[in-house]
Amino acid sequence: MPMPTHILPTTVVGSYPQPEWLVNRAMLSKVVPRTRLHDMWRLPAEHLEEAQDDATIVAIRDMERAGIDIVTDGEIRRESYSNRFATALDGIDGDNPAMIVARTGNTQTPVPRVVGPVRRKGPVELHDMQFLRKNTERAAKITLPGPFTMSQQAKNEFYKDEEELAMALAEAVNAEALDLQKAGADVIQLDEPWVRNNPELAKRYAVKAINRALRGITVPTVVHLCFGYAAVVPGSNKPAGYSFLAELDDTIADQISIEAAQPKLDLGVLRDLSSKKIMLGVLDLADPAIESVDTVADRIRNGLKYVSPDRLVPAPDCGMKYMPRATAFGKLKAMCDAAAKVRREIG
């Protein structure tokens, strides 16, 4: 489908709230799972796909009603942004997990073990993309977990080092991305929040892995960073700035997506990404209130102090899956109305 041609096109990072009738949201709220969390789903296996289809249509229609220009499938079929893809690969043992320190640094979390050569057995998100393409006439984006982040969310028991693991994961991601492009994806996004969690390691090979994962992709591409879901990582635990950001100017991705509203990020950092479009987080997902149009418009205007209008894409800070649906919809509507307001001001 054609990409929007107007300035300040709106999008979402990826996820949208899953209905209570589909998932146990109380269980989900306690964790961002790295291994599978089958008990999260409320329906038996024989009815699950149909229910996920229905919930996906609801998510798409909410985004369309809010005015989102570049929609996703809401990641409705996923237990987390990364675990469904990661645990579908050969060489990954998700049934006998290891324990590592969580991204927050204060808890242990079960993760898959890497026990052999990592290879993509077959498509994982292809049906998701095909279903999305059939159910919207708007530009459509699909997200994949990035190879660096997946390498940090697993226990390596096979490769000589984490870089070798990340490059194997990058090949698997690339094979998937090429299939998603053929299926009609207008935008492909890699989620790489862990690059800021381990910046020294990221400086060694994250850009190399991201570029391998995006090889041959001709549609617009995005790399997303954030400080963690607002529902899971409170604002008091979030840093004031990114420890790995300027380096992403060396990736072949077209856009860099950052969380900026909740941490009140100094947007001067955007000068370091002069070759990229910026997907700017302008919705604070830790705030249970729906921001006013004027509040969001001010955040967009602040971004325009550092990025030209043709390079700015308003978005939420992060995925919205942990929010009440009414709040998520209200925030998206405020963002779309704010983008339209600033668009009119610019003329």
UniProtKB/TrEMBL annotation:
SUPFAM superfamilies, sorted: UROD/MetE-like
Keyword Zinc: yes
Family matches, as InterPro entries: Met_Synth_C/arc (IPR002629), UROD/MetE-like_sf (IPR038071)
Cofactor: Zn(2+)
Domain Cobalamin-independent methionine synthase MetE C-terminal/archaeal span(s) in chain numbering: 8-340
GO terms assigned for molecular function: 5-methyltetrahydropteroyltriglutamate-homocysteine S-methyltransferase activity; zinc ion binding
Tagged with keyword Transferase: yes
GO biological process: methionine biosynthetic process; methylation
UniProtKB keywords: Metal-binding, Methyltransferase, Transferase, Zinc
Listed name of the protein: 5-methyltetrahydropteroyltriglutamate--homocysteine methyltransferase
Organism for this UniProt entry: Bradyrhizobium stylosanthis
